Amino acid sequence: MSATGLGIDTTFDDTSVSVLRGKREILANLTLSQYKEHEEFGGVVPERASRKHLEVIHLLIDDAMKKADIDFTGIDYIAVSNHPGLLGSLLVGLSVAKSLAYSLGCPIIGINHVEAHPYANVLDHGEMQFPILHLVVAGGHTLLMHSRDHFDYDIIGSTIDDAAGECVDKVAKLFGFPMPGGPVVDQAAMEYSGNEYDFPRPLLNKNTHNFSFSGLKTAMLRFKENCMQSSSSGPEKSDTLYETGPVLASFFQSVTDVLLQKTFKAAEEYGLRNISVSGGLAASRKLRKAFEEESSRRGLKLYYPQSSLCTDNAAMVACLAAHRFEAGLFDDLSLDAFPNLQ
Ligand code: KG4
Ligand code: ZN
Fold first, then answer.
1. Residue ranges with CB less than 5 Å from ion ligand 2
2. Phi and psi angles of residue 60, each rounded to the nearest 5 degrees, phi first
3. Cβ–ligand 1 contact at 116 (below 6 Å)
4. CA–CA dist 6, 251 (Å, integer)
5. Minimal CB count within 10 Å: which of 95, 255, 282, 325?
6. pTM of the model
7. 136 CB under 6 A from ligand 1?
8. What is the 134 CA–ligand 1 centroid distance (Å)?
9. Please, what are the domains in the chain?
Protein backbone atom coordinates (compact mmCIF):
# COMPACT_ATOMS: atom_id res chain seq x y z
CA MET A 1 0.00 0.00 0.00
CA SER A 2 1.27 3.52 -0.73
CA ALA A 3 2.68 5.62 2.06
CA THR A 4 0.80 8.68 3.31
CA GLY A 5 2.70 11.82 4.26
CA LEU A 6 1.83 14.97 6.16
CA GLY A 7 3.49 18.00 4.53
CA ILE A 8 4.22 21.31 6.24
CA ASP A 9 5.44 24.51 4.61
CA THR A 10 6.03 27.72 6.58
CA THR A 11 8.97 29.11 4.62
CA PHE A 12 7.77 32.67 4.15
CA ASP A 13 4.34 34.19 4.64
CA ASP A 14 2.03 31.29 3.76
CA THR A 15 1.17 28.52 6.19
CA SER A 16 0.42 25.34 4.30
CA VAL A 17 -0.40 21.77 5.35
CA SER A 18 -1.05 18.81 3.08
CA VAL A 19 -1.86 15.15 3.30
CA LEU A 20 -0.60 13.13 0.34
CA ARG A 21 -1.21 9.46 -0.37
CA GLY A 22 1.41 7.87 -2.59
CA LYS A 23 3.14 10.37 -4.83
CA ARG A 24 0.14 12.12 -6.35
CA GLU A 25 -3.09 11.68 -4.48
CA ILE A 26 -3.77 14.94 -2.67
CA LEU A 27 -6.10 14.19 0.25
CA ALA A 28 -5.75 17.73 1.60
CA ASN A 29 -3.75 20.83 0.64
CA LEU A 30 -4.69 23.86 2.75
CA THR A 31 -2.88 27.18 2.60
CA LEU A 32 -3.46 30.33 4.64
CA SER A 33 -1.93 33.45 3.16
CA GLN A 34 -0.67 36.24 5.42
CA TYR A 35 -0.61 38.99 2.79
CA LYS A 36 -3.28 41.02 4.60
CA GLU A 37 -1.38 40.73 7.90
CA HIS A 38 1.61 42.59 6.44
CA GLU A 39 -0.17 45.05 4.15
CA GLU A 40 0.08 48.05 6.46
CA PHE A 41 3.89 47.58 6.66
CA GLY A 42 4.38 47.46 2.88
CA GLY A 43 6.25 44.14 3.06
CA VAL A 44 6.52 40.95 5.09
CA VAL A 45 7.63 41.56 8.70
CA PRO A 46 9.58 38.40 9.72
CA GLU A 47 8.64 38.47 13.42
CA ARG A 48 4.96 38.90 12.60
CA ALA A 49 5.16 36.10 10.01
CA SER A 50 6.42 33.56 12.58
CA ARG A 51 3.75 34.57 15.10
CA LYS A 52 1.02 34.15 12.49
CA HIS A 53 2.33 30.69 11.54
CA LEU A 54 2.25 29.76 15.21
CA GLU A 55 -1.34 30.97 15.61
CA VAL A 56 -2.74 28.91 12.76
CA ILE A 57 -0.58 25.86 12.19
CA HIS A 58 -2.27 23.49 14.65
CA LEU A 59 -5.73 24.47 13.44
CA LEU A 60 -4.62 23.97 9.86
CA ILE A 61 -3.22 20.51 10.65
CA ASP A 62 -6.52 19.56 12.31
CA ASP A 63 -8.47 20.82 9.29
CA ALA A 64 -6.18 18.99 6.85
CA MET A 65 -6.56 15.71 8.77
CA LYS A 66 -10.35 16.13 8.80
CA LYS A 67 -10.39 16.93 5.09
CA ALA A 68 -8.20 13.89 4.38
CA ASP A 69 -10.51 11.85 6.58
CA ILE A 70 -7.70 9.96 8.32
CA ASP A 71 -6.22 9.96 11.82
CA PHE A 72 -2.57 10.23 12.79
CA THR A 73 -2.08 6.46 12.83
CA GLY A 74 -2.50 6.65 9.05
CA ILE A 75 0.53 8.99 8.66
CA ASP A 76 3.77 7.25 7.57
CA TYR A 77 6.13 10.24 7.49
CA ILE A 78 6.28 13.98 8.15
CA ALA A 79 7.64 16.25 5.41
CA VAL A 80 8.72 19.78 6.23
CA SER A 81 10.44 22.56 4.30
CA ASN A 82 13.53 23.37 6.35
CA HIS A 83 15.20 25.74 3.85
CA PRO A 84 15.36 28.36 2.36
CA GLY A 85 13.12 31.00 3.96
CA LEU A 86 12.71 33.26 6.96
CA LEU A 87 14.41 31.54 9.88
CA GLY A 88 11.66 32.25 12.44
CA SER A 89 8.97 31.02 10.04
CA LEU A 90 10.92 27.86 9.14
CA LEU A 91 11.44 27.07 12.83
CA VAL A 92 7.69 27.08 13.50
CA GLY A 93 7.05 24.44 10.83
CA LEU A 94 10.14 22.46 11.80
CA SER A 95 9.29 22.38 15.53
CA VAL A 96 5.76 21.19 14.85
CA ALA A 97 7.05 18.59 12.36
CA LYS A 98 9.61 17.27 14.86
CA SER A 99 7.02 17.02 17.64
CA LEU A 100 4.69 15.10 15.35
CA ALA A 101 7.43 12.76 14.08
CA TYR A 102 8.58 12.11 17.66
CA SER A 103 5.13 11.43 19.06
CA LEU A 104 4.01 9.33 16.10
CA GLY A 105 7.35 7.51 15.91
CA CYS A 106 7.56 8.08 12.17
CA PRO A 107 10.36 9.44 9.95
CA ILE A 108 10.85 13.16 9.31
CA ILE A 109 12.00 14.36 5.89
CA GLY A 110 13.47 17.86 5.52
CA ILE A 111 12.76 19.44 2.16
CA ASN A 112 14.37 22.17 0.10
CA HIS A 113 11.37 24.38 -0.71
CA VAL A 114 12.84 25.50 -4.04
CA GLU A 115 13.59 21.91 -5.09
CA ALA A 116 9.96 21.06 -4.23
CA HIS A 117 8.40 23.63 -6.60
CA PRO A 118 8.90 21.53 -9.78
CA TYR A 119 7.13 18.60 -8.06
CA ALA A 120 3.86 20.51 -8.53
CA ASN A 121 4.16 19.07 -12.04
CA VAL A 122 4.29 15.50 -10.74
CA LEU A 123 1.07 16.14 -8.80
CA ASP A 124 -0.56 17.56 -11.88
CA HIS A 125 0.81 15.51 -14.77
CA GLY A 126 2.60 12.46 -13.34
CA GLU A 127 6.34 11.76 -13.29
CA MET A 128 8.57 14.09 -15.30
CA GLN A 129 11.08 12.64 -17.72
CA PHE A 130 14.77 13.13 -16.96
CA PRO A 131 17.06 14.79 -17.84
CA ILE A 132 15.10 18.00 -17.49
CA LEU A 133 15.67 21.74 -17.13
CA HIS A 134 13.63 23.26 -14.29
CA LEU A 135 12.91 26.99 -14.29
CA VAL A 136 11.76 27.95 -10.79
CA VAL A 137 10.28 31.44 -10.54
CA ALA A 138 9.29 31.87 -6.91
CA GLY A 139 8.99 35.10 -4.94
CA GLY A 140 12.51 34.93 -3.55
CA HIS A 141 14.31 32.76 -6.12
CA THR A 142 14.80 32.56 -9.85
CA LEU A 143 16.71 29.41 -10.73
CA LEU A 144 17.59 27.20 -13.65
CA MET A 145 18.27 23.63 -12.52
CA HIS A 146 19.67 20.90 -14.73
CA SER A 147 18.23 17.75 -13.19
CA ARG A 148 19.50 14.29 -14.19
CA ASP A 149 17.24 12.41 -11.79
CA HIS A 150 15.38 12.93 -8.52
CA PHE A 151 17.72 14.61 -5.98
CA ASP A 152 20.47 14.89 -8.62
CA TYR A 153 20.74 18.35 -10.10
CA ASP A 154 23.03 21.31 -10.70
CA ILE A 155 21.94 24.91 -10.40
CA ILE A 156 23.18 26.33 -13.70
CA GLY A 157 21.69 29.81 -13.34
CA SER A 158 20.29 31.98 -10.59
CA THR A 159 19.63 35.61 -9.96
CA ILE A 160 22.57 37.79 -9.03
CA ASP A 161 20.25 40.29 -7.32
CA ASP A 162 16.42 40.41 -7.20
CA ALA A 163 14.33 37.40 -8.16
CA ALA A 164 11.81 37.92 -10.98
CA GLY A 165 8.86 37.56 -8.55
CA GLU A 166 10.42 40.04 -6.14
CA CYS A 167 10.94 42.51 -8.99
CA VAL A 168 7.31 42.09 -10.11
CA ASP A 169 6.06 42.66 -6.55
CA LYS A 170 8.24 45.75 -6.10
CA VAL A 171 7.26 47.29 -9.43
CA ALA A 172 3.56 46.65 -8.72
CA LYS A 173 4.04 48.39 -5.36
CA LEU A 174 5.76 51.32 -7.11
CA PHE A 175 2.61 51.75 -9.18
CA GLY A 176 0.38 51.61 -6.10
CA PHE A 177 -0.68 47.97 -5.89
CA PRO A 178 -0.55 45.85 -2.74
CA MET A 179 1.26 42.50 -2.36
CA PRO A 180 1.23 40.15 -4.15
CA GLY A 181 1.93 42.14 -7.31
CA GLY A 182 1.98 39.15 -9.68
CA PRO A 183 -1.78 38.83 -10.32
CA VAL A 184 -2.27 42.54 -11.13
CA VAL A 185 0.77 42.68 -13.42
CA ASP A 186 -0.37 39.49 -15.15
CA GLN A 187 -3.84 40.97 -15.65
CA ALA A 188 -2.29 44.03 -17.35
CA ALA A 189 -0.12 41.74 -19.48
CA MET A 190 -3.23 39.88 -20.65
CA GLU A 191 -5.06 43.11 -21.51
CA TYR A 192 -2.35 45.03 -23.35
CA SER A 193 0.15 44.07 -26.03
CA GLY A 194 3.29 44.71 -23.98
CA ASN A 195 4.88 46.54 -26.94
CA GLU A 196 3.97 50.09 -25.90
CA TYR A 197 7.22 50.74 -24.05
CA ASP A 198 10.68 49.29 -24.50
CA PHE A 199 12.10 48.50 -21.06
CA PRO A 200 15.49 46.77 -20.50
CA ARG A 201 15.93 42.99 -20.75
CA PRO A 202 18.85 42.47 -18.33
CA LEU A 203 21.57 39.92 -19.19
CA LEU A 204 19.51 38.68 -22.12
CA ASN A 205 22.34 38.69 -24.61
CA LYS A 206 25.17 37.99 -22.17
CA ASN A 207 26.95 34.67 -22.12
CA THR A 208 25.59 33.53 -18.77
CA HIS A 209 22.60 31.55 -17.49
CA ASN A 210 22.29 33.91 -14.52
CA PHE A 211 19.53 36.47 -14.17
CA SER A 212 19.44 40.05 -12.91
CA PHE A 213 16.24 41.99 -12.32
CA SER A 214 17.26 44.87 -10.12
CA GLY A 215 18.26 47.07 -13.10
CA LEU A 216 14.81 46.58 -14.62
CA LYS A 217 13.23 47.60 -11.31
CA THR A 218 15.38 50.77 -11.25
CA ALA A 219 14.45 51.51 -14.88
CA MET A 220 10.77 51.37 -13.86
CA LEU A 221 11.44 53.74 -10.97
CA ARG A 222 13.23 56.20 -13.29
CA PHE A 223 10.43 55.93 -15.85
CA LYS A 224 7.86 56.82 -13.22
CA GLU A 225 9.93 59.69 -11.79
CA ASN A 226 10.48 61.16 -15.26
CA CYS A 227 6.78 61.00 -16.04
CA MET A 228 5.88 62.65 -12.73
CA GLN A 229 8.37 65.48 -13.31
CA SER A 230 7.10 66.13 -16.82
CA SER A 231 3.49 66.09 -15.72
CA SER A 232 4.00 68.52 -12.81
CA SER A 233 5.86 71.00 -15.05
CA GLY A 234 3.06 70.94 -17.65
CA PRO A 235 0.33 73.59 -17.73
CA GLU A 236 -2.57 71.37 -16.71
CA LYS A 237 -0.68 69.35 -14.07
CA SER A 238 -2.25 66.04 -14.90
CA ASP A 239 -1.28 63.31 -12.47
CA THR A 240 0.55 61.05 -14.88
CA LEU A 241 1.59 60.93 -18.50
CA TYR A 242 1.02 57.24 -18.82
CA GLU A 243 -1.66 54.64 -18.36
CA THR A 244 -0.58 52.07 -15.80
CA GLY A 245 -1.89 49.02 -17.70
CA PRO A 246 0.31 49.36 -20.82
CA VAL A 247 3.33 50.26 -18.65
CA LEU A 248 2.94 47.13 -16.51
CA ALA A 249 2.27 45.02 -19.59
CA SER A 250 5.48 46.27 -21.25
CA PHE A 251 7.41 45.71 -18.02
CA PHE A 252 6.15 42.12 -17.82
CA GLN A 253 7.00 41.60 -21.48
CA SER A 254 10.64 42.29 -20.52
CA VAL A 255 10.44 39.81 -17.62
CA THR A 256 8.82 37.19 -19.86
CA ASP A 257 11.35 37.65 -22.68
CA VAL A 258 14.25 37.22 -20.27
CA LEU A 259 12.83 34.11 -18.56
CA LEU A 260 11.76 32.52 -21.82
CA GLN A 261 14.83 33.17 -23.91
CA LYS A 262 17.35 32.31 -21.21
CA THR A 263 15.52 29.06 -20.40
CA PHE A 264 15.41 27.88 -24.01
CA LYS A 265 19.01 28.95 -24.60
CA ALA A 266 20.12 26.88 -21.58
CA ALA A 267 18.03 23.90 -22.75
CA GLU A 268 19.71 24.09 -26.14
CA GLU A 269 23.19 24.38 -24.68
CA TYR A 270 22.65 21.39 -22.35
CA GLY A 271 20.81 19.39 -25.01
CA LEU A 272 17.68 19.09 -22.86
CA ARG A 273 14.33 18.32 -24.45
CA ASN A 274 12.24 18.41 -21.25
CA ILE A 275 11.48 21.69 -19.49
CA SER A 276 9.48 22.44 -16.38
CA VAL A 277 8.29 25.80 -15.10
CA SER A 278 7.11 26.27 -11.50
CA GLY A 279 6.96 28.74 -8.61
CA GLY A 280 4.46 31.48 -7.76
CA LEU A 281 5.21 33.69 -10.78
CA ALA A 282 4.43 30.71 -13.03
CA ALA A 283 0.77 31.24 -12.05
CA SER A 284 0.91 34.03 -14.65
CA ARG A 285 -1.27 33.27 -17.68
CA LYS A 286 1.01 35.39 -19.85
CA LEU A 287 4.10 33.39 -18.86
CA ARG A 288 2.27 30.08 -19.35
CA LYS A 289 1.15 31.08 -22.84
CA ALA A 290 4.66 32.22 -23.81
CA PHE A 291 6.24 28.95 -22.62
CA GLU A 292 3.55 26.80 -24.22
CA GLU A 293 3.94 28.53 -27.58
CA GLU A 294 7.74 28.42 -27.59
CA SER A 295 7.95 24.76 -26.46
CA SER A 296 5.54 23.66 -29.11
CA ARG A 297 7.40 25.71 -31.75
CA ARG A 298 10.64 23.94 -30.78
CA GLY A 299 9.03 20.52 -30.29
CA LEU A 300 10.10 20.32 -26.62
CA LYS A 301 8.16 18.70 -23.79
CA LEU A 302 6.88 21.30 -21.31
CA TYR A 303 5.67 20.54 -17.81
CA TYR A 304 3.65 23.42 -16.40
CA PRO A 305 1.41 22.96 -13.32
CA GLN A 306 -2.06 24.40 -12.80
CA SER A 307 -1.84 27.84 -11.20
CA SER A 308 -3.08 26.73 -7.75
CA LEU A 309 -0.03 24.44 -7.50
CA CYS A 310 2.42 27.11 -8.74
CA THR A 311 2.13 29.26 -5.61
CA ASP A 312 3.43 27.98 -2.28
CA ASN A 313 1.73 24.82 -1.09
CA ALA A 314 2.60 21.86 1.11
CA ALA A 315 1.43 19.25 -1.43
CA MET A 316 4.54 19.85 -3.58
CA VAL A 317 6.65 19.50 -0.41
CA ALA A 318 5.01 16.16 0.44
CA CYS A 319 5.36 15.05 -3.18
CA LEU A 320 9.14 15.51 -3.18
CA ALA A 321 9.23 13.85 0.26
CA ALA A 322 7.25 10.87 -1.09
CA HIS A 323 10.10 10.30 -3.56
CA ARG A 324 12.61 10.56 -0.73
CA PHE A 325 10.54 8.18 1.41
CA GLU A 326 10.54 5.61 -1.36
CA ALA A 327 14.32 5.93 -1.69
CA GLY A 328 14.73 5.57 2.11
CA LEU A 329 16.23 9.06 2.41
CA PHE A 330 15.12 10.16 5.87
CA ASP A 331 16.34 12.77 8.32
CA ASP A 332 16.28 12.59 12.09
CA LEU A 333 15.25 14.87 14.95
CA SER A 334 18.52 16.80 14.74
CA LEU A 335 17.20 18.36 11.51
CA ASP A 336 17.87 22.11 11.48
CA ALA A 337 16.45 25.11 9.59
CA PHE A 338 18.53 27.23 7.20
CA PRO A 339 17.51 30.61 5.79
CA ASN A 340 19.64 30.22 2.66
CA LEU A 341 19.53 27.77 -0.20
CA GLN A 342 21.82 24.91 0.81
O1 KG4 B 1 6.36 30.58 -4.97
P2 KG4 B 1 5.69 31.70 -4.28
O3 KG4 B 1 4.24 31.51 -3.92
O4 KG4 B 1 6.44 32.10 -2.97
C5 KG4 B 1 7.82 31.95 -2.78
O6 KG4 B 1 8.32 30.81 -2.77
O7 KG4 B 1 8.44 33.03 -2.64
O8 KG4 B 1 5.85 32.97 -5.23
C9 KG4 B 1 5.37 34.22 -4.89
C10 KG4 B 1 5.38 35.08 -6.16
C11 KG4 B 1 5.12 36.55 -5.89
O12 KG4 B 1 6.06 37.30 -6.62
C13 KG4 B 1 3.71 36.77 -6.42
O14 KG4 B 1 3.47 38.08 -6.88
C15 KG4 B 1 3.67 35.76 -7.56
O16 KG4 B 1 4.35 34.63 -7.05
N17 KG4 B 1 2.31 35.37 -7.96
C18 KG4 B 1 1.82 35.51 -9.20
C19 KG4 B 1 0.47 35.07 -9.15
N20 KG4 B 1 0.19 34.68 -7.87
C21 KG4 B 1 1.35 34.86 -7.14
N22 KG4 B 1 2.37 35.97 -10.31
C23 KG4 B 1 1.62 36.00 -11.42
N24 KG4 B 1 0.33 35.61 -11.48
C25 KG4 B 1 -0.28 35.14 -10.37
N26 KG4 B 1 -1.58 34.75 -10.43
ZN1 ZN C 1 7.82 29.07 -3.11
1. 138, 312
2. -65, -40
3. no
4. 40
5. 95
6. 0.94
7. no
8. 17
9. 4-118+311-326 (3.30.420.40), 129-305 (3.30.420.40)
